[in-house]
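Quick one before lunch.
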Amino acid sequence: MDDFLKRLPKAELHLHIEGTLEPELMFALAGRNGIALPYDSVEAVRAAYDFSDLQSFLDLYYQGMSVLRTAEDFHDLAMDYFRRAHGEGVVHVELHFDPQAHQARGIELETVMEGLGQARRQAERELGLSTALIMAFLRDRPAEEAMGLLERAAPYWETLDAVGLDSAERGHPPSKFREVFERARLLGIPRVAHAGEEGPPAYIREALDLLDVCRIDHGVRCIEDPKLVARLRDEGVVLTVCPLSNVRLRVVERLEDHPLPQLLDAGLRLTLNSDDPAYFGGGMLDNFRACYRTFGWSKEVFIQLAGTAIEAAFMSETRRLALHRQLADCA
Ligand code: ADE
Ligand code: ZN
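Model of the zinc ion complex:
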């Protein structure tokens, strides 16, 4: 089974590129940029990754990214991740990135786009990895700031595969960003949003009804609302679920308590993803392995999950067909 899970062509639809920053690279970049870290060693960084909720993680996540300053840093961050993902049998990566968090530190959007763009082209060329780019708005910042970012991103509208919504969910409902997402819709940019990670099922409804998203990131708290589950099934809405993230951020106590099996039984379209692999103790393969160990799913279930990810990905139809073929060969 382990060999099968590794060979399975996995498309990752929910990943924050800043959340792939391993402590080793954090130290290397801190050294290169002359930045002092509040840790003595790589082990001390890892030891600090003991989270009680989403906010306690976000505090370290925003602190960790302070070492990213130049286009080369963003390139190295992304390439480091693409190489690891490729080694785990990942064939397509959709990366969220958080421009407002960088802007707040004086790092311009152009710098981030240049570094990520170089890495994406290199990954395609050297690893055969396809990628997509999702520009995320920070929901705990004002909607006006998000609108400003969307306008500033005008030179890149054509290169964005989607816009997303992330950061601290509680108290920041999707409705706050209705106009920003409406503007993105008019520009022809697809939309996704985190909803129902820590926030209530009502936020999932709002994301669908007010932000017109084509996928929900996380969405696991839909399980509390049977009518919503029925709606998600009827409308074929895809949830990008992140099992190990949900355990580490205490959305569920243990993976055994995760609603994944119930959501699958209810006929929802689900994908498995890593979210912030450097912080949550594992990448795509670890998430697939953990689900196998905990739920004992058959190969067919994993093929279904991998197939849904290929169906729901932002990629060319040629690429989609090639990956569906690769998946069929794997079975
Ligand atoms: N930003 C990075 N990881 C996140 C998560 N799991 N939820 C919300 N915002 C995030
Ligand atoms: Zn996320």
